[in-house]
């Protein structure tokens, strides 16, 4: 037997649910009530522009928020459309029946502008019961012959409607009598911060004031002040900026405006490097400004912040569904009226739409980078050190982003030039095809940099933490290109410059070192290096170094193999010391000295590559002392 039916809901049970679960954050009742006021104003303006009613669209529309400490109440007052008794019955008494939706549906055929009404679900108003023991609405509709109405409810399903004796101008006043757990909302500082957070860019002026008790000291002082400064008119400024910069057309915004907006929104004195003004009408509405912040150090990146707005109402910071994770390293604002938000606004519903928006933002960022790299190369190079970590992170996170920006990725060379991968490979094709040499630590690898410069070779600097991963990623995407650290095996590259003369002498030098140094290095090679100052350098095979690094990252794990770095000692037969050693090789009484100096040369070469092992350092110091003694007793 099958049966169909409809589930019944007991309204009495709904309120505790709304109160407790609907909104994750108590503060948001302020946002909901102010956005209702804003909707009410916008509706009124819309009716004027549609010619439905007479009036001045530029009238002084506003939302006043008053704090009444004495009554422990918060009052929200607007001069919007107001409500008739019938509308109160319909929109307020029926939970989840939105007058905003109703209004939009009624006029949507006539409205050619986008829908800028915030309300949607018909639930926002009830968030006021999260903080109130009693809520009172006093409202007067714009309609002719409308009478002021009062609606009062103490949070259950009971309400009372009567004539209002306090509202005699068009608009709505909502009074929240705060419950005992919500007394913090009588503090002006708290309320101001919340309005600032959510409503900074709402399109209607918002003012906040605390009602002074008539005979209080504060009120008396204020009276005194007004008496003494009779001629001075106290200027009251709204909390919000009703025309945020992102709404302006990019061509009308000046650099100074962008910078000022950045400083104001992110409360900083810093200047952004550059920015992207997003302005999309199709296939969805999206406006915003993304700033590339100037970084003082790599780790500051985590502080990025992208604020998401829905019709100028703040929704949340850093929503990763809309803004891809790597873009969260930027700072900025994004206003997307089409966001499929759910009731509590900070949660998104439809993944497909959201991912479209997110893809679009990525594309815009990539386009901007490409255009800067192409058209403003000089400033792009100046920014590069600051933005490179961000871009590399983006590439690692999103291959699509890499594919878009790959030709705009720069590499700084040891000659302080900036070059793309393509240009580097082309330039070095003859000398080392598909091989990129890089420096991971300029100070430590200075010997090698010098060698490179002597041989007119070029290397790029990849010294941030992210570069290790980035190198593997670029190799994977650009096979058979390989990155080699500057101390990697250069024999192929040096071969071209190889001096084939003195072959015999070279063999003798090699044997001399082999005898004295033994197994400490795997291979020996003797070259005629251009610089006489270097007696020898150590080269480490790229593969073996990477394996050894990997092993040290997974310390303690047994890989079943020995990952030793494979070292080659390149001895310079142009060095006067090496020459001298060679000349002494047959002198028996010099054997010990030769061995001492050969080992010392190896250690110095090792030191120039990286720190010595403790036991090696020990020997090095002992030998050094011996050498000094020898010199002194000469
Ligand atoms: N200040 C106001 N002035 C005029 N009408 C109002 C005001 N506040 C609420 N209303 C009416 O009550 C309706 C219900 O408000 P409520 O905040 O519960 O939902 P909403 O704004 O439609 O949607 P949401 O839940 O998304 O905020 C509104 O759609 C509007 O018609």
Automatic annotation (TrEMBL):
MF-aspect GO terms: ATP binding; ATP hydrolysis activity; ATP-dependent protein folding chaperone; unfolded protein binding
Keywords noted in UniProt: ATP-binding, Chaperone, Nucleotide-binding
Pfam families recorded: HATPase_c_3, HSP90
Classification via Gene3D superfamilies: 3.30.230.80, 3.40.50.11260, Heat shock protein 90, C-terminal domain, Histidine kinase-like ATPase, C-terminal domain
CDD domains for this protein: HATPase_Hsp90-like (cd16927)
Annotated binding of ATP, by residue: 32, 36, 78, 83, 98-99, 172, 345
Keyword ATP-binding assigned: yes
Similarity annotation: Belongs to the heat shock protein 90 family.
Protein name per the record: Molecular chaperone HtpG
Organism this protein belongs to: Romboutsia lituseburensis DSM 797
Taxonomic lineage of the native organism: Bacteria, Bacillati, Bacillota, Clostridia, Peptostreptococcales
């Amino acid at each position: 037997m099958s049966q169909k039916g409809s589930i019944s809901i007991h309204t009495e049970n709904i309120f505790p649910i709304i109160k407790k679960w609907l909104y994750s954050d108590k503060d948001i009742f302020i946002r909901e009530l102010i956005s209702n006021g804003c909707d009410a104003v916008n509706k009124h303006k819309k009716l004027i522009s549609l010619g439905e009613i007479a009036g001045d669209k530029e009238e002084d529309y506003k939302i006043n928020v008053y704090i009444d400490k004495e009554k422990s109440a918060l009052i929200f007052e607007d001069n919007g459309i107001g409500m008739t008794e019938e509308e109160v019955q319909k929109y307020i008494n029926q939970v989840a029946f939105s007058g905003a939706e109703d209004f939009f549906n009624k006029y949507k055929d006539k409205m050619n502008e986008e829908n800028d009404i915030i309300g949607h679900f018909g639930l926002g108003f009830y968030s006021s019961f999260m903080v109130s023991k009693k809520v009172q609405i006093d409202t007067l509709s714009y309609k002719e012959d409308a009478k002021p109405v009062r609606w009062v409810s103490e949070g259950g399903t009971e309400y009372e409607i009567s004539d209002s004796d306090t509202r005699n101008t068009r608009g709505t006043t909502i009074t929240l009598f705060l419950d005992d757990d919500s007394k913090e909302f009588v503090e002006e500082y708290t309320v101001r911060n919340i309005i600032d957070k959510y409503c900074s860019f709402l399109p209607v002026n918002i003012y906040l004031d605390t009602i002074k008790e008539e005979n209080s000291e504060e009120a008396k002082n204020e009276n005194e002040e007004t008496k003494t400064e009779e001629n001075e008119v106290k200027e009251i400024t709204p909390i919000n900026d009703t025309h945020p910069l992102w709404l302006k057309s990019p061509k009308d915004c000046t650099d100074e405006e962008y910078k000022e907006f950045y400083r104001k929104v992110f409360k900083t004195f810093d200047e952004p490097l550059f920015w992207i003004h997003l302005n999309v009408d199709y296939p969805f509405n999206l406006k915003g400004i993304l700033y590339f912040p100037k970084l003082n150090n790599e780790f500051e990146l985590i502080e990025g912040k992208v604020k998401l707005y829905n019709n100028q109402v703040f929704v949340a910071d850093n929503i990763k569904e809309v803004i891809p994770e790597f873009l969260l390293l930027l700072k900025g604002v994004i206003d997307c009226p089409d966001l499929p938000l759910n009731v509590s606004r900070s949660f998104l519903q439809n993944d497909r739409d959201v991912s479209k928006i997110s893809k679009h933002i990525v594309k815009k960022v990539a386009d901007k980078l490409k255009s800067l790299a192409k058209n403003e190369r000089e400033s792009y190079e100046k920014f590069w050190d600051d933005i490179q970590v961000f871009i590399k992170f983006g590439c690692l996170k999103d291959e699509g982003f890499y594919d878009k920006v790959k030709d705009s990725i720069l590499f700084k060379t040891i000659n302080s030039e900036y070059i793309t991968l393509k240009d580097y490979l082309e330039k070095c094709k003859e000398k080392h095809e598909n091989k990129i040499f890089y420096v991971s630590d300029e100070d430590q690898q200075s010997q090698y940099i010098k060698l490179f410069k002597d041989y007119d070779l070029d290397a790029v600097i990849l010294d941030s933490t992210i570069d290790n991963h980035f190198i593997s990623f670029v190799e994977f995407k650009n096979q058979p290109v390989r990155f080699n650290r500057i101390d990697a095996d250069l024999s192929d590259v040096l071969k071209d410059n190889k001096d084939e003369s003195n072959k015999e002498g070279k063999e003798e030098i090699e044997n001399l070192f082999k005898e004295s140094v033994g197994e400490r290095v795997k291979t020996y090679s003797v070259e005629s290096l251009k610089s006489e100052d270097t007696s020898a350098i150590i080269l480490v095979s790229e593969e073996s170094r990477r394996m050894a690094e990997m092993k040290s990252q997974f310390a303690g794990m047994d890989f079943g193999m020995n990952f030793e770095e494979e070292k080659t000692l390149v001895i310079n037969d142009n060095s006067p010391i090496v020459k001298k050693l060679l000349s002494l090789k047959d002198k028996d009484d010099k054997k010990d000295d030769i061995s001492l100096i050969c080992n010392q040369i190896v250690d110095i070469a090792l030191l120039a590559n990286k720190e010595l092992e403790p036991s090696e350092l020990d020997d090095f110091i002992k030998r050094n002392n011996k050498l000094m003694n020898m010199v002194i007793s000469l």
